[in-house]
Structures are given as C-alpha cells and as structure tokens.
Amino acid sequence: MRALVAAPGRPANIELREVEEPDPTPNEAVVEVRASSLNRGECSALQSAPDGWRPGWDVAGVIAEPSAEPSSEGWSLEAGTRVIGWSNGGGWAERVTVRSDHLAKLPEPVSFEVASTLPVAGLTALGVLAFCDPLEGRRVAITGAAGGVGRFAVQLAHALHADVTAVVGSTERGEGLPELGADHVVLALEPEGEPFDLILESVGGSSLAAALTRVSPDGTVVSFGNSSNEPTSFDARGFYRRGRPTMRGYFVTHELLDGRIGSLRFDELVGLVISGRLRSEVDLVVPWTEAASAVTALLERRVRGKAVLTVGPS
Question: Whole-prediction pTM value?
Fold first, then answer.
C-alpha cells in the first residue's frame, strides 16, 4: 500500500512511498483511510524526523478489517462501518491500524473531512477546558485561538457561558472568531491586565510567561503546546505571590494511550457536530499527493482552523 513518510530533503520533508500493509494486534482494527487532518505537532516533527518515519494521528474512513477482540466497552465494528479514530502514527496512509477503544461510528451526516479534524484538536479542547469547572461566568483566555484546538475551545467555552478572550497573531487570523463565540479578540497576551480564571496556553515562550502573570489568585494555566519553539523565562515570585494559582500540562496522546479517554469522547464530539453546537473550521482540503503544500501552509501559519488530506487513488 502507499503512505506518506518522512523524506529529508524533499519538499516539506515528505513523500508518498510504498510501505508494508498494517499488521493489527487482536485489539486493533484496520481502517481504510478516507481523510486525515494535519496537526502542528506532527508537521513540526517531520522537519527533523528520520527517513521513513510515518506521521498521522487523525483518521476518518471505513473499517477494512474488524478487530479480533471487542473494545473495552464490549462492542466491535463490522467491516464497512464508517468511523472516526486516532492512530498513534501512520495515519497518512491508505490503511492504518487503530485500537478498538480509539474508534467510534461516524454517522452519514458528518463528512470524512470534517470528522478527521476532531480527534486531536477536539479531544484536546475538551481536556484543557475540564481544568475549570464550572466555566459559567469565568474569564477564559485562549492563546493560538486561530488554530484547530483554539477554534474548538472558543466554541466550547462560549457554550458553557464563559467570557472568552481569543489571542491571535494577527488581525487576519482573528477573523471569524467572534462568530464562534469569542467575546474579545486580542493580538497578544500582555503581562499586565485583568486576571483570567483559566488560560489555555499553546504558544510557549513569552506568551506562557505572560500567562503566569495574568492568572487569577486561584486560577489555572494549562500548557498544551509550544508553537513558538521558544523557552520560557519568568519571575517565579510574580506567580506564587498571586495566591494559589496552578499550572498544569496536558498532552492528549498520554490520555489516549493510558485509556483515560477514548470512544465515548469521540461519540461526544460527533454528537456536538451533528447538533450544530460545534463547527469544524476546515480552511484547507488537498489530495494527499499535495501533502507538502498543506504541511508548509500549516507551519507558515497560513491555515485558519484545520487542514485536511483526502486519501485515495490519484
């Protein structure tokens, strides 16, 4: 079968090659991939990955080969079933193995392209927002709000009646965020200003440092990314003298691999999309033969929302 693999020296360090067919374990199904969305983490990893490394976490497609064992919930999916899922790499391919507890049925109203945007970005948005409960009436700041996680988090926080500040890198990248539920759109998280009860921080560097000075006395900063690739320096006294604020880390891969989240969360996300309470902002859709252009666009911050690869003959 064919798959996209790391290829140092090629455009965006990626190319389409022939690879071996997937070899599932008893608790894995083989999914015939129809669409896969791009995440900044895997696109960044491509730039230094060894030759042959296989990216791809988010997948949507149909079951090609059911798992031999049922999921932890006791169910299995038949061949031909439309599904959404998360793979621990290798999803930018014609077929991929996926743990049965990392799969959920995908109803017909939801396209493969939209569904493929939900696993990493949607699960991360749900996970980081859970650090502040209830959210009603709370002040929430979301850095990197123009990205996939950010746009989902803005909508989910707004639906829970939080006061939402979206932090973006430019006026252009902030377009459309008020319509998704952002009460305020700003171009930077400044070190001085009104405190926030919850700050979702994915930029790192000076942005994370500012977050630690803007959190409320009993608020929480959640770090889940470092898109700036910069280290963070901050005055510890400016943080601990605020009261009893906390800083937490969140990495959705650990949550999935440890079995703390899975199929039920996928069902929740799909249900939100079907009900109209969550909108996936798909800004770029290209065939997987043009993956290099999509990877480059994402890394150069020319994608507002999500970029999707459609997988299949070409």
Answer: 0.95
